[in-house]
Amino acid sequence: MASPKGQTIDLATLTTAQLSQVKKQLDDELEHLTNSFTQLRAAQAKFRECLRSIAGGVTPKIEGKPILVPLTTSLYVPGTLADPENVIVDVGTGFYVEKSTKDATKFYEAKVEELGSNLKDLEAIVQGKSNNLRVVEDVLRQKVLSASSAASASASTS
What we know:
Number of strands: 4
Oligomer: single chain
Shape: rod-shaped
Order of helices and strands: HEEEEH
Low-confidence stretches: none
């Protein structure tokens, strides 16, 4: 187990209370990382959906016909496609930019790829934390079992 300064700690030298505290900290970190992983997956799915929308919904044959324009994930308003060559792209934090469909596709593909890379890195971190948690749980279990067996041995000799 490594401390914030990168030092290695021998888990066998920690008390049961200290091991419980380390276990709780690892549980909390793992929960936070798992939530982050889920949010990144959702963002990646959103960008993939944007790519599908551009590929299937922005074509010259739809120009001038009535369509439903998404304002949020659950709110759509009627509208018409005025320009099949350009789209408005949400670039984050409430900013929108007009881009050509080709540039918008490149933008969303880059976002999907970047999130994929981040997800891969995060998955490795989650795996490492899970392994650390398993080791701490094993050492804690051994300490509790040895303490209870020592207590029962001393009680039987009394």
